[in-house]
Write a structure and sequence with these properties.
Layout (H helix, E strand, L loop, with lengths): L1 H24 L4 H7 L3 H6 L1 H26 L3 H25 L4 H21 L1
Length: 126
């Protein structure tokens, strides 16, 4: 179960890095606007907000990856704490999105299922 948790956390981190790229680096691009359903004017008006939000996603991914590395080098308690914090925050943020924006439930599931399953597998493994 620990290995499953690490794989799921790594996939969740990858998803959040992609979100970072879309939000912080490509927000006004046609691709990002298509993914988030925005017009060019909406993207321009929210670019600063998205830039900042993208970094939140990147930092959560980094916490999860550092947790994975810690577990792999034998520091399981530290790694588990970081995984609970990183993946747990990803899952919690997805729950907030799921319940606060019914039209964005698909996005919430895409960003929240992997970290939630990672946290559950980690809890079972420990």
């Amino acid at each position: 179960m620990l290995t499953l948790s690490l794989v799921l956390a790594a996939l969740a981190a990858l998803v959040h890095v992609v979100i970072f790229v879309l939000e912080s680096l490509m927000w006004t691009s046609a691709r990002a606007r298509r993914v988030f359903g925005l017009s060019l004017d909406e993207a321009r008006n929210t670019q600063q907000l998205a830039f900042n939000q993208g970094f939140y996603n990147l930092f959560l991914a980094i916490v999860a990856v550092v947790g994975i590395v810690c577990v792999l080098v034998g520091s399981v308690p530290v790694g588990a704490a970081l995984l609970f914090a990183g993946a747990g925050s990803m899952a919690a943020a997805a729950l907030v999105l799921f319940f606060s924006a019914p039209d964005k439930r698909g996005a919430a599931l895409k960003q929240g299922v992997l970290p939630l399953l990672s946290v559950l597998a980690l809890a079972i493994a420990l």
